[in-house]
Amino acid sequence: MKKAYLAAAIVILLAAGVMGLMFGLSPLVEGQVHRGIQNIGISGDGITTQAAVDRVEFSPLSRTLTLYGLRLRGETPQGPLSYEVAEVSLRIPLRMLLAYTPLRPMVLKEPRMMPVAENIVLRNLSTRSPDFRASVQREEINELRCQSELVGRFLDGAPIDALAATYLMGADRAHSFFLSVNMPGKDGLAQLTIKESLVQGWEGASIALMRIDDVQSRLNGQESMRMGSFEASGVTLPELGLVHRLMDAAAVGEHDMEAAVKTLGPVLEEILAADPPLVRQVRASGMAFSVENGSVTVGEAGFDWLSNSPRHTTSFISNLAAPRSLIQVSSGFLAPALKANMTFESMAQSSSSHKKTFSLKAENLADVDCSLILYDAGIISTSEQALLLQSFSDLNLAIKDRGAMAWLGLNLSHDGRAAATAVQLSLHKGLELNPTPQNKAIREALLAFVQRPGKLEITSVRGQRIGILQLLGALGDPGTLFGCTAAPGPKTLEEQINALAAQAAQTSAPVETAGK
User: Which of 324, 327, 368, 496 is deepest in the core (most CB within 10 A)?
Assistant: First the structure.
């Protein structure tokens, strides 16, 4: 019996000791958190910031830390900057809790990522700057990890650069709800709202997935854009030094935009040349853009960075659509509704050249496939110089008519013969070329395509590099640079125009199948 009492007494004493230790940690934890927060800032050219918190509370039994009135305020070349969080609650893991005690050297001995907070909830985040105001209603993070070195700096009250710290942190999942951004400008108040955002697999400079859902933008209260979702995967943040150079260039741009552009160019090129790339894949879906006379919608758009050596990227736009009324009002011409798909591809051929491929499939208008090798203009100072120095080679352009020529003729006359004759005469007069066999072949192919629209192919002389000056010099003698062939379609241009005109007479909107 005495032994049982003795064992119980020992357990009680141990429990009391642990409880005493836990409760004794409260002021220690709260004090070190206060000091650590006061030394957080953002470094950059002309940027000075200071962090503070109104109140810190630590519950030893649940290991819950709650911060009230967390804020970071400072001055930038553009004006005052502030970040505020009304409340932050989190649970401190046992290992991190030991780092608040004299056992810290042992806990932080190994230089690696360690959990520093669990079940993190941030409420009512807000950001203000001279250019915008932003807020987030709630953010949840399952577990936050930091490099042990960063943990030690925080606990020691050493200065911490918030931007640099992001490269030493990580989390499996961060979920935000109800984001809004207000940006006043010369055209009025621009507003952006996001229902949800998600970050997964954040580990230092790498982020596995970033996603936002239900996005809407407004200008002066009127919707300008909406998007169902936007997703980026395989994200790698730029090297920290490059980020600071971007910030410095942005500061310069406030006073000297030309100098900022010259600075930004090389920095952006370094970022794009980095391996791994900035982003592996981007997808956006359910987009609608409001314009003056209607809206343009996009089913999905995407971008894929396939490799760095050689640099190889692809992108696409699918189900691009605009109503017939919008196309006609915007262009001033009779035209069908726009329904199109587009693809793009770029692959480096050398350090200064890329093979570009473009494809457009526009229902009731045309299919266009184009490829060429585009050469960089080099380091230039103006867009005019870039245009003059830009050059290409190995052009291959294929156009399959699906009604575009008939719609063009219908704008001239609803009489098929008159419209077709006018188109052919215009082309005939415009083709005043030097009398060479190559130019004769080009002339015959273009006239055949207009008479019976089918497929037209244009190719440049293989391996010959062509610039804007060569193009201007060959206006009367294109055969020195290009070849052209045509395959006739099943119907003449006159027949297609008459078919469109007949349908227009029967309905208020022409049936859009003339070129099929």
Answer: 496
Q: Please classify residue 221 by burial: count the beta carbons closer than 10 Å to its beta carbon, then call 0-12 exposed, 13-18 middle and 19+ buried.
A: exposed
CB-based burial of residue 109 (10 Å sphere; 0-12 exposed, 13-18 middle, 19+ buried)? exposed
pLDDT given for residue 504 in this prediction? 75
User: Which token pair is 163?
Assistant: 């931007």
Q: Residues 372-392: pLDDT tens digits?
A: 999 987 655 455 566 667 899
Residue 47, token pair as written in the block: 């940027």
- At residue 282, the pLDDT reads 97
Low-confidence ranges of the chain (pLDDT < 70): 1-25, 42-47, 250-261, 378-388, 507-516
> Can you give the pTM of this predicted structure?
0.83
The amino acid occupying position 105 is P
Closest CA to 302 of 320, 275, 321: 320
- Say if strands 79-91 and 281-291 run parallel, antiparallel, or are unpaired: unpaired
Q: Amino acid letter at 56?
A: V
Can you tell me which residue has the tokens 């007494």? 9
Residue 209 three-state SS = strand
Residue environment code for 34-68, b if the CB has 16+ CB neighbours within 10 A, otherwise e: eebbeebbbebeebebebebeebebebeebebebe
pLDDT at 227: 97
d(CA 492, CA 484): 20
What's residue 271's pLDDT?
A: 84
Distance of CA 303 to CAs 276, 374, 485, Å? Answer: 16, 20, 33
